[in-house]
Amino acid sequence: MQYIIYDLEFTVSRNARYSSEIIDIGAVKVMQGDDGLYVADTFHSFVRPSNRPVLSTDTVQFTGITQRDIDAAPLFPEAVKQFIAWLGTDSTYYLCAWGPDDRQKLVSHCRTHHVDLHWIHNTNDIQKQISRLSGSNGKYRQLSLSQALELCNIDFDGQQHRALDDALNTAQVFMHHFDRITLTHNASDDEESRGSKLVYSTPEEEQEQYSPFGNLANLFKDR
């Protein structure tokens, strides 16, 4: 079984007429070895946005991605084609991200660019899983990636809001908590099926209760 920990970075837009576009894809392939989990491979590609190819100042400041990086990058269909090729022919993998936004944006982009969704399956929200483990009595607060690393006594390695660096750090948290998290099988185009089939569970299942401030926290989260 392969565990694909991926991260996406998007354009930052203050104009409601323009939706954000993926400009950075990073992923880590985690596998099980004789001595436990290990990072087997990594993937990275910048993505040239098709609607607004010139990056805003906000985007550059937030991500550190430059116009030169983007100008030399492939458009989304080619970048995601490279990503799918990197995943390989073995379809027995989980796609894990920090939070729900990356999956939603990935599916949206694939639909917009007429990319088949068959490969987007077994998606899991690691932020939700780790935040849940940090709580008690079924109550928890949503953790940022930096907070989750701190609880694991792991320093952030690299630059925040860069896709590969965020994916690598998420993988560290994932491997640290692997024996306690829940992973599920689900389909790419079935929102209701996500989380419906339990395949790996914590020893003690807690009744999940959502914080009333969860959605607000999403707006300001440190991914």
TrEMBL record:
<dbReference type="GO" id="GO:0000175">
    <property type="term" value="F:3'-5'-RNA exonuclease activity"/>
</dbReference>
<dbReference type="InterPro" id="IPR036397">
    <property type="entry name" value="RNaseH_sf"/>
</dbReference>
<feature type="domain" description="Exonuclease">
    <location>
        <begin position="2"/>
        <end position="183"/>
    </location>
</feature>
<dbReference type="GO" id="GO:0003676">
    <property type="term" value="F:nucleic acid binding"/>
</dbReference>
<keyword id="KW-0540">Nuclease</keyword>
<dbReference type="InterPro" id="IPR013520">
    <property type="entry name" value="Ribonucl_H"/>
</dbReference>
<dbReference type="Pfam" id="PF00929">
    <property type="entry name" value="RNase_T"/>
</dbReference>
<keyword id="KW-0269">Exonuclease</keyword>
<dbReference type="InterPro" id="IPR047201">
    <property type="entry name" value="ERI-1_3'hExo-like"/>
</dbReference>
<dbReference type="InterPro" id="IPR012337">
    <property type="entry name" value="RNaseH-like_sf"/>
</dbReference>
<protein>
    <submittedName>
        <fullName>Exonuclease</fullName>
    </submittedName>
</protein>
<feature type="region of interest" description="Disordered">
    <location>
        <begin position="186"/>
        <end position="214"/>
    </location>
</feature>
<dbReference type="InterPro" id="IPR051274">
    <property type="entry name" value="3-5_Exoribonuclease"/>
</dbReference>
<keyword id="KW-0378">Hydrolase</keyword>
